[in-house]
């Protein structure tokens, strides 16, 4: 049998408050933060979040600035801004009363994987799943994401880059939790047989 905890609460009704006691299992569960890629939104993760939550986790999906409700910021939002979004979402998830702060997973796709990797150097993360993670130069960190030179970025991604030379790769090299990296569609770097 599980142990329980309780909190007294006030329930507003018709201009008054009635007393209540909220009783719940004191067991905490893992938290899963789902981070979409550039051009994505939380919508792509809602169904998956329900599936993961049904397994006994608390999931949080969210829209990075420059997307969905904030699409008008698309040409101004920087990686620093979006990293702030992921950190704020992480902090919100960890503050949930049933989330075990020692059991946090980040699942990120492309740009979301890049940001998620960086977060592992800034917050406790136990599991990291990266789907076709993107990679960006550190030097143009404050350049709005939508204004990055795509040709230069493509050339950069063809280079051999070590953890000492890139913030995201450095975070991955230092990460001590469990990690999963998966390919996507026509990936030539991580082919299907792997």
Descriptive overview:
The protein has 194 residues and is an alpha/beta fold. The protein has a single domain, classed as Rossmann fold (3-Layer(aba) Sandwich), CATH 3.40.50. Helices cover 27% and strands 27% of the residues. The protein contains 5 helices and 7 strands, in the order E-E-E-H-E-H-E-H-E-H-H-E. It has helices spanning 43-54, 79-94, 111-119, 150-156, 167-174; strands at residues 4-13, 16-25, 29-35, 58-61, 99-109, 127-131, 178-182. The strands form 2 sheets. A 5-stranded parallel β-sheet has the order 4-3-5-6-7, sandwiched between helices. Strand 5 (99-109), helix 3 and strand 6 form a beta-alpha-beta unit. The longest helix has 16 residues, at 79-94. The N and C termini lie far apart (43 Å). The relative contact order is 0.14. The mean pLDDT is 88.
Topology of this protein?
Blueprint lengths: L3 E10 L2 E10 L3 E7 L7 H12 L3 E4 L17 H16 L4 E11 L1 H9 L7 E5 L18 H7 L10 H8 L3 E5 L12
Helix pairs in contact: 2-3, 3-5
List keywords for this structure.
5-stranded parallel sheet; two-stranded antiparallel ribbon; Rossmann fold; alpha/beta; 5 helices; 27% strand; 194 residues
What would the principal axes of the Cα set say about the shape? elongated
| Spatial ordering of strands, largest sheet | 4-3-5-6-7
Radius of gyration: 19 Å
How would a textbook summarize the main sheet?
Answer: 5 strands, parallel
* Oligomer designation: single chain
Q: Beta fraction of the residues?
A: 25-35%
Series of H and E elements: EEEHEHEHEHHE
- The low-confidence runs, each spanning 5 or more residues with pLDDT under 50, are none
């Amino acid at each position: 049998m599980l142990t329980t905890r309780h909190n007294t609460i006030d329930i507003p009704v018709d201009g008054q408050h009635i007393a209540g006691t909220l009783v719940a299992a004191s067991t905490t569960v893992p938290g899963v933060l789902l981070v979409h890629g550039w051009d994505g939104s939380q919508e792509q993760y809602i169904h998956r979040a329900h599936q993961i939550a049904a397994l006994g986790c608390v999931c949080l999906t969210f829209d990075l600035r420059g997307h969905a409700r904030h699409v008008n910021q698309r040409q101004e939002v920087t990686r620093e801004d979006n990293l702030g979004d992921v950190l704020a979402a992480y902090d919100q998830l960890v503050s949930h009363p049933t989330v075990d702060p020692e059991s946090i997973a980040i699942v990120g796709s492309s740009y979301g994987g890049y940001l998620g990797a960086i977060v592992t150097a800034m917050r406790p993360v136990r599991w990291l799943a990266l789907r076709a993670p993107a990679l960006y130069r550190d030097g143009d960190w404050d350049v709005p994401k939508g204004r990055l030179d795509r040709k230069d970025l493509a050339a950069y991604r063809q280079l051999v880059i070590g953890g000492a030379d890139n913030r995201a790769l450095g975070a991955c090299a230092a990460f001590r939790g469990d990690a999963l990296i998966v390919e996507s569609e026509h990936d030539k770097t991580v082919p299907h047989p792997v």
